[in-house]
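Section 5.1 Outputs to date
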Amino acid sequence: MLGQRLPTKARPRDEAEKPFWISYADLMTALMVLFLVVMAVALLAVTKTVSEREKEEVQHRKDIHELLTRFENVAKQERFKGITVDRDRNVVDFGTRAQFPFAKSTLTTEQQQLLRAFVPAILEQANDDLGKKVLKEIVVDGFTDKTGSYLANLNLSLQRSQRVLCALFSRPEASEQPMTAEQLEQVRALFVVGGYSFNAAKETDEESRRVEMRLQFLGVKETRKPAVGVTPGNFGTCAIPN
């Protein structure tokens, strides 16, 4: 019996045909889990970004509110009595302290002195760290009453706005504290002229013939653009006839 072969035991059929690769159902389950993980991470990142943006916007509004409060504190000084800050419109209103005569763009000596005293006080607030962070520019708006034509009043309102800047750059009286060269440069960099004809007219013609300083604020993460190509000094003289 030396050459006789012993029979081998056959393996079960199901064991021989058992697949090696992961099943299709398990593969889809794994992919679904991976998809959910990726979506969760992405949603968390988006939520965090939105939350940070909202925090920045809230802080930005707080900074603007604080700067308006500082401007109000300046306006409340006894020497500036009559000047108010309108928070709803972000406007410094000079009221009766800087009203113009009918159909003219002239300011009295006292009114010009008031402007040359008030503007340095707000420049101090506008150019500190908080002011530089949120304040973009100050628009000087001139207004007229409803008498006369639209174009005539538009020209008059622009002249009144320009008159305010002319007053700031004109020679001060002997009794005044003159603005420094640095302050005058700040005025040139920060102040712009606007005209509104008889828009936003007030109850009386006298109140309508006024000047306002409108505060324009920067957006979140926006910064002031420095003046480029401007020669220091060389302010010139007022081109509006007296």
